[in-house]
């Protein structure tokens, strides 16, 4: 039996899955294909040992969480942007916002990597005529699709040869009234998902469902787990 390893978050996915169980990445992308591996069949003994390992891992995670203040567990991306743009002062379309993002392993808070980068929302398209192929999700009544073309530039890396992992999960869209929209739309071509070294640029699309009467939702990048900070962008002129 085989499985796919997600190129973005490294989650192991069953062979029949097209989207990553961990982050929603399209696993059959030509540009960033998932790595297909074959499970080793260790028989009954192997299954027993595997079960013991899983139980010990769960116990370890529980012990770790119990010994940690949940409110102080940092997200996988912490940011500090330097251009003064915030939820109350979002950047216009086409205006890059510069800053720093620190990525690290969520549970262990190890393998920390700092990146200097800039992000811009270049253009926004609303309605049925989408520039990308939409996969999954039924359009809700009173809603329409909103597609945003985003450019990410990695200007510097604090660790030599470290790659920044850019994922659609680092972005979110917030209504004009201040409520997060759920991520219900997936695309498998020209996505914003990418792994980038310093000096690299990537341009891709985000697609959301928004209310038709919401004329000015905002896009946020790299907020913390309590919705604070982040790079903020307008979706209208």
Work out the helix count: 1
Strand/helix succession: EEEHEEEEEEEEEEEE
Percent in strands: 35-45%
Average of the residue pLDDT scores: 79
Based on CA inertia axes, which overall geometry fits? globular
Largest sheet: 5 strands, antiparallel
Radius of gyration: 19 Å
Give the helix proportion (percent range): 10-25%
Low-confidence stretches: 61-76
**Could you name the CATH class of the largest domain?**
Mainly Beta
The appropriate CATH architecture of the largest domain is Sandwich
Number of E strands:
15
Tell me the domain tally.
2
Helix vs. strand class: mainly beta
If strands are numbered along the chain, what order do they take across the biggest sheet?
Answer: 4-5-6-8-13
Distance separating the two termini: 51 Å
From the 3D structure, determine the CATH topology of the largest domain.
Immunoglobulin-like
Description:
The protein has 237 residues and is mainly β. It has 2 domains: 2-66, no CATH class; 77-234, Sandwich (Immunoglobulin-like). It has 1 helix and 15 strands, in the order E-E-E-H-E-E-E-E-E-E-E-E-E-E-E-E. The chain has one helix at residues 43-66; strands spanning 2-5, 12-14, 35-38, 77-81, 97-103, 113-126, 134-135, 143-157, 164-166, 171-174, 186-187, 194-196, 201-211, 218-221, 231-234. The strands form 5 sheets. The protein has a 5-stranded antiparallel β-sheet, with no helix packed on it. Strands 2-1-3 form a 3-stranded antiparallel β-sheet, with no helix packed on it. Strands 10-14-15 form a 3-stranded antiparallel β-sheet, with no helix packed on it. Strand 1 and strand 2 (12-14) form a beta hairpin. Mean pLDDT is 79; it is low at 61-76. The chain crosses the membrane at residues 45-65. Residues 117-215 form the DUF4352 domain. This is DUF4352 domain-containing protein.
């Amino acid at each position: 039996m085989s499985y796919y390893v997600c190129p973005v978050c490294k989650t192991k996915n069953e062979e029949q899955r097209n989207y990553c169980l961990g982050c929603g990445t399209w696993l059959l992308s030509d540009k960033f294909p998932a790595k297909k591996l074959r499970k080793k069949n260790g028989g009954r003994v192997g299954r027993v040992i595997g079960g013991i390992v899983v139980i010990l891992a769960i116990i370890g995670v529980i012990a770790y969480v119990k010994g940690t203040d949940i409110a102080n567990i940092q997200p996988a991306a912490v940011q500090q942007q330097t251009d003064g743009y915030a939820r109350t002062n979002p950047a216009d379309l086409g205006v890059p916002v510069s800053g720093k993002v620190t990525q690290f392993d969520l549970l262990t808070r190890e393998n920390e990597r700092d990146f200097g980068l800039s992000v811009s929302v270049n253009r926004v398209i609303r309605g049925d005529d989408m520039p990308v192929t939409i996969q999954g999700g039924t359009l809700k009544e009173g809603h329409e699709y909103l597609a945003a073309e985003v450019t990410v530039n990695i200007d510097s890396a604090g660790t030599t040869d470290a790659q920044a992992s850019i994922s659609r999960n680092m972005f979110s869209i917030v209504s004009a009234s201040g409520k997060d929209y759920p991520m219900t739309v997936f695309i498998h071509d020209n996505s914003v998902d990418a792994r980038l070294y310093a000096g690299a640029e990537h341009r891709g699309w985000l697609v959301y469902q928004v209310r038709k009467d919401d004329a000015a939702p905002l896009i946020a990048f790299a907020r913390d787990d309590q919705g604070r900070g982040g790079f903020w962008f307008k979706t209208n002129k």
